[in-house]
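Model the whole thing, not chain by chain.
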Amino acid sequence: MRVVVWNENRHEKLNENVASIYPEGIHGAIKSFLQTNDVEVRTATLDDENHGLSEELLKETDVLIWWGHLAHDEVNDNIVQLVHENVLNGMGLIVLHSGHFSKIFKKLMGTSCDLKWREANEKERIWVMDPTHPIAEGVGEYFELQEEEMYGEHFDIPTPDELIFVSWFEGGEVFRSGCTFKRGHGKVFYFRPGHEAYPTYYDKNVQQVIKNAVKWAKPVNRPLATYGNAKPLEKLDEVKENE
Amino acid sequence: MRVVVWNENRHEKLNENVASIYPEGIHGAIKSFLQTNDVEVRTATLDDENHGLSEELLKETDVLIWWGHLAHDEVNDNIVQLVHENVLNGMGLIVLHSGHFSKIFKKLMGTSCDLKWREANEKERIWVMDPTHPIAEGVGEYFELQEEEMYGEHFDIPTPDELIFVSWFEGGEVFRSGCTFKRGHGKVFYFRPGHEAYPTYYDKNVQQVIKNAVKWAKPVNRPLATYGNAKPLEKLDEVKENE
Amino acid sequence: MRVVVWNENRHEKLNENVASIYPEGIHGAIKSFLQTNDVEVRTATLDDENHGLSEELLKETDVLIWWGHLAHDEVNDNIVQLVHENVLNGMGLIVLHSGHFSKIFKKLMGTSCDLKWREANEKERIWVMDPTHPIAEGVGEYFELQEEEMYGEHFDIPTPDELIFVSWFEGGEVFRSGCTFKRGHGKVFYFRPGHEAYPTYYDKNVQQVIKNAVKWAKPVNRPLATYGNAKPLEKLDEVKENE
Amino acid sequence: MRVVVWNENRHEKLNENVASIYPEGIHGAIKSFLQTNDVEVRTATLDDENHGLSEELLKETDVLIWWGHLAHDEVNDNIVQLVHENVLNGMGLIVLHSGHFSKIFKKLMGTSCDLKWREANEKERIWVMDPTHPIAEGVGEYFELQEEEMYGEHFDIPTPDELIFVSWFEGGEVFRSGCTFKRGHGKVFYFRPGHEAYPTYYDKNVQQVIKNAVKWAKPVNRPLATYGNAKPLEKLDEVKENE
């Protein structure tokens, strides 16, 4: 299993508080809990050449994790196109938190992906809606983050294929915090938590969910569909065919 | 109810056979069965100025119907953007047949929208999968088109919100022929039949489905969602908020 | 349009507070806002003969509304069977609040329909998840009920076909408060609010939702599916057929 | 992983042709390709004591496979209740072919589960609708069974959570042949092929799908939800609470 964690990595450079929470970057924090004997994790960031994402790397990537916020617009459209093609060809994609506004997520969703938000250090309680789902494995009925940014409905996404988590916020909002989507041969998971100013990616439940999601999102081993002009599989009425 | 039927209208100009089947264009044929006292229908075509689609027209359009095939690439990206915004703001969209490859449908789906196809005058039998759906009103368990182009799976679309029709083809394929999708505040219906070389839009069942779809796709009367920074609706823990 | 409002009508007889809120019974309150020139509303209650639900009445009923709580077990299994058959044949069903534990809802869902609950006069804020849905017509981004019983997740229902509302509760829970389900040829809507000790059914938003749901749930006009042994629609390979 | 294959095992006793195709019974044939070092397979049949299904056995079963046809009515309601409870508590259930009419499947679906059928040795071509799904792993775009019983739409089931396969039949019908459903904490997969008079369970693709489904259906490791009266997780407004 080969995973790439992509991070914008700008807050970490611009903001001391964020840098102190994530001294190795958000990508580094995520890598550190994902890496195991079975999961090889590489990282890539916006300021790397080609954002660290080459055609070769993506081709051999099972699951790509995406965190961005300040600089969605700086992501090159060709790279977005490349990631998009790889998702349609089977690569899993996990979009975290403010990645809801990334070019790749908006392109895959076809909607604005807009939402309500508020930074007020408020409590988030994440409830499991789908107790059958492997992404909820090892997680209780709910888990809490003592301080997070609020994201509130309406979240402008297509109807998710599966709704796994819904968040309750202290300030009165709710949010579909864990959603799956199928696109082409690829699986996409959106997971809400992870504002840069909080130590969210050190939370054991958040880590568990991301680890589960990586397993869930990996491609299935089967041939890609063929498209275009197709010969009939059954004998057609010849008269009509030659009409 | 205000409907706009948009048609590429190129086959009708380039091909005598198509012109003889649809002397008023495919848009004219669709308009003629949709227009009633309650439904005002206008038409617009690719070669009209701005493809016949202005900001003002779309703002007052309840449902837009889209047929295109040869010249998807000639549709101006700004117009696609405009249609997209209107769908997210509530305008219904009905995409017909080869419109699966239109820019607007691909943008709303987020996938390639590719499929298998074959022109062999073969029989299509369209089965109702969802007997509860208003788009299937007045339609029997199935209906047949004696000659149509084949479209076959895999059809590269996101999981439809609702699967209303599945086609059986003489040559051995199946196809999800009637699919609904929600995008933003708008409803989208894809309906497969309608190759330009066959008199499909004169078929009573096809007409019934399109009439039903127009009713189904019309916007609901409610305020648009608000997005962005949001004040709390409940009193927050002040200590934490001012942290 | 013919609607039947079925109510257990026991709290109203046993509890003065409930009787003072709903002097005509919950069924009477619902009837009073549903009845119009276009909608004929009848009521039926548990203690009526055959619970007020005959084969003839149900056959000519477009939508049945169901409120029950104390005496689910007293509902005769034959009547449950009759309602079930009518739903499969196209009759709409709207299940309110504590009706989640009714025999008919459990039979249609196939699950326990269990949930968390608390009576603590707490605030409920009902958020619209699906801004395209006709059941949300005329409703803002959210509406509030100042005092309601809490229902909390996990709500043991199958994945809803559509998730229209999610509730936020003061005590920290969330709940899928507006859910649609298709069963056979019939449409089912579950709507959470309506504890007997609060004047919930006088709330304008609650009334609007129920009025919308009645319109949405009405049967579509088409023949019922036929089941059982079926002759081939295409010529089969005779050798194989007679094998 | 512990799997139980339950088979009615009556055709095998009553019909020489079936007995010659499945000398160890359909359960034996399924066991023989499922059993591996990682998967322990037991079998149980209708005529075993308590149909071979005890409380203890089911408690330690990860996935139950169900084949029945002639004698659905002979299955004891208490056993059906027991299987139902185990599914809601997380046990996976795979229902094969004529099991669509089993008590347990109808109870979990809440519908009639009726369909069209025909025994005419006709060809079935099973198309993959969902190329992302682990149940389709190792399977091409479609696979064929040269002779099978026809099942045709409308199939009276709730909207599946996922539609993985759709069948094309020589005689002109289509069918949703691979469907997933979530019920409580358990996952359910319905798979169409497997008429007793054909050697379907020796087909490599059919075997692959069932092997995949067993992996997919296994319970996730997490606590069961708690239901009933619940203390608030947040401080409530005391005045209102004591009202």
